[in-house]
Structure formats: C-alpha cells, structure tokens
Amino acid sequence: MFKTRFAIFLMAALSLLLGMAAAQDAGQFLILNAQYGNERNHVDVTNRLKNLARRDRPFRISDESMEVDPDRGHAKMLRVFARGPNGQERFFDFPDGSVFDGAQFRSWGRGDWGDAQWTGGWNGRGNGSDAGQFLILSAQYGSRRRHVDVTPRLKELARRDVTFRLDYRSFGVDPDEGHAKVLRIYARGPNGRERMFEYRDNSIIDGSLFRGWGRGEWAGDNDRWSGRWEGDEREEHEDRDRDRR
Known about the structure:
Layout: H1 2-24, E1 30-37, E2 42-44, H2 46-55, E3 59-60, H3 63-66, E4 77-83, E5 89-95, E6 99-100, E7 135-142, E8 147-149, H4 151-160, E9 163-165, H5 168-171, E10 182-188, E11 194-200, E12 204-206, H6 233-244
C-alpha cells in the first residue's frame, strides 16, 4: 500500500514539474539570433545565450555574463532578434545591468532555437536590406599600384551587418602599407552596365545599395567584372562621347 501511494506521489510530482517546465517554455517569441554590444561594435552571442538558457534562471546582462567585451569602455546591450506568433520579426534590448528573463521566449530552457542562416545586422534584416539596385561583381582593396581581391571577406562582413566602418583591419590585409587606400566595389546596375563605388579608409560602407547584400548572393561564376582598377573603360568613353555632344 505504501509503495502504491509513493508511486502515485512521484507521478504527481513529475507531472507538476513537467507542467511547470512546459509553462516556462511557452513564450510567444522564438529566438533567431542574439547580438551583444552596440551599433558600432557587436558580436554574435547566440551560443552563449543558449548555454545560459539551459540553466533556466534569470541573469544580469554584462560583459562577464556574455563572456566578451566588443567595445570596452562604452555602453553595451544584449539585443535578441525573435519571430512573433504573427510571423514577423522584432528585437528586444537588454542594457548592461538589466536582468534577463527568458519566460517570454518559446523553448527558452531547452535552448533548441536560433537560426544558423540568420543574416541580419544590428538593426535586423529589414524589409529592403537586400533590395538594392546594384549587383556586386568584385571588391578590391588598396591603391592603384597595389590592391588585392577582398570579395570573399566582403561577403563575410555583409552577412554580419548592413553597415560597417572601413579600414585595413576590416579585411585583415594592408596591400600598400603607409599609403592611402580605398575599397572599390564593382557592380552591375539595373541597365546592365558596370559601375564602380569607391570608399576611403574610415568611411562607412552601406550595403543597402547592393542587391543580395545580407545574403552574400553575388560575385558568382556568371558575374563578370571588367578586371580594371579604374572600372569599365568602355563606360567612361561612352560618357565622354555623350558630354562632347
């Protein structure tokens, strides 16, 4: 008799615990990605947030809890990007010092969330972030006499954010040390002609001009670049001819 009552008690307790766990993981929003820092400097902390989620208790936001300090000495926050019940995406901001409670997020305690293919930046994916008019063909960094192809590296940066500040550290290479350098992006416009965009060191690159920016779906095998540092010479000659007329 005692064993039967004990078994019933255990089953009831287990049911209660399972019910509490289910309630804790029944939030409305599904996490897609988490970034820590500020608009200038931020890093992906989705995996770190998953580790904290599995402990299933509130915690205070700081560089210590995130185990990284992307912008030392400046204000930072945790920004969580999530999909709501209506399918739309939004983000939640948690400044340093605030307490984070995952109760509003679905499957929080299990940590079975996060979109490995998420391509948004600090301000989210946005509706038009990949709707630019120009398709990138190639990206070259340096000076006229010495420059290198940085197209693959630019794709990596594009997948992280819509904008970033340019310097030689952006690409991990200095092709002409001690001399002024620029990033030149060669792209095809809606009229099918090639155009060159130039960005000097310390300028802000805004990818919203370019089609497929955040997805990095450009500079493929069929996207031919003229291969000239000065851009497509034929376009320059045609422009000069029109000016003479």
